[in-house]
Amino acid sequence: MRRKAAVFLMTALAVGAAWTPALAFNQPPLNLGLTDILDGALPGPGTYFTEYIQAYQGGDFKDKDGNDIGGDPKAANVLAMNQFVHVYKHQVLGGHIGADVLLPIVAISGSGTLGAPGPGVSTNPAVLGDLVVGPFLQWFDTKLLGRPFLQRLELDLILPTGQYDEKYLINPGSNLWTIEPYYAFTWFLTPKFSTSWRIHYTYNTKNTAPFAALGVNDVQPGQAFHFNYSFEYELFKNFRGAMAGYYLKQLTEDKVNGNSAEGSKEQVFAVGPAVHWIFSPQFSMGLKAQWETSVENRPKGNRTTLRMTYKF
């Protein structure tokens, strides 16, 4: 059920012979492509552990118009997201009460500079990301147009517990709080064909110790809307193939020292093939690859994700 991939925090852009703070690249790590196939369809009350392994390879960094940034900046990471989920038998409003906790471990690398001249793409060698906690309600037996419709409503809180140092451009932690409600569902349109979506709204507080080379006191990433999606077909018993991806659209501008930063909104769309195999009632596994396009104020790259879930 959850979260956190690329870790791109603060940057600067070349402007003439000098560089000035970029008003972009500030969104914290978000759930881009971690979850999709059968996301709303937990197999019932109980305790689950899910391990996500996601490799992200970022190519060109894009500006607000989708053009390449000079200096040949590159960034990549390998994420291990560790998630514990418990779904209780107790119900509220017909939904089962649940909660989950996620702890990300990430290794980051970078190269090049952000513009010419510009700061280098420096990366923190620490590995501990921000802790995520979230209560939720899970409905197992609802229907839409007469077809099974499993759904979940969750309120996630991302805590600034990860390792962070303002001397690095890219860190495992984000040094801010994030409040992120989401709604997830899986709708079985036929016994074999289904679609799953997870729709997030993201609100961030201020980072009061941004990348030191920027020379600013605080940065607050703008509010954002993003979702993961998949269209799934059961090719044979308990084995599904899918087309899956994600979309992010930042809705409000970042704020730097309390002032709105024009041209700072981020955007990305991704799609790719995916498979999901339910080996037993206790264990399932999925694998997917997704390529990004329509990128603004972010790196453009690709993600490969392995997901394994065990029910105790």
Layout of helices and strands, plus pairs?
Layout: E1 12-15, E2 18-21, E3 46-61, E4 74-92, E5 95-111, E6 132-139, E7 143-144, E8 147-158, E9 178-188, E10 193-204, E11 219-220, E12 224-236, E13 239-250, E14 255-256, E15 259-260, E16 267-280, E17 283-296, E18 299-311
Antiparallel strand pairs: 1-2, 3-4, 3-18, 4-5, 5-6, 6-8, 7-8, 8-9, 9-10, 10-12, 11-14, 12-13, 13-16, 14-15, 16-17, 17-18
Question: How is this structure best described in words?
Answer:
- It is built from no helices and 18 strands.
- The chain is mostly beta strands.
- The chain has one domain: monomeric porin ompg (Porin).
- The strands form three sheets. The protein has a twelve-stranded antiparallel β-barrel.
- The N terminus is likely disordered.
Q: What keyword list fits this structure?
A:
312 residues; mainly beta; Porin; twelve-stranded antiparallel barrel; three-stranded antiparallel beta sheet; 18 strands; 57% strand; disordered N terminus
Rg, rounded, reads 20 Å
Globally, the shape reads: globular
Q: Might you state the CATH topology name?
A: Porin
The strand count comes to: 18
The total domain count is 1
Low-confidence stretches: 1-23
Determine the number of helices (DSSP H or I, runs of at least 4 residues): 0
CATH architecture annotation: Beta Barrel
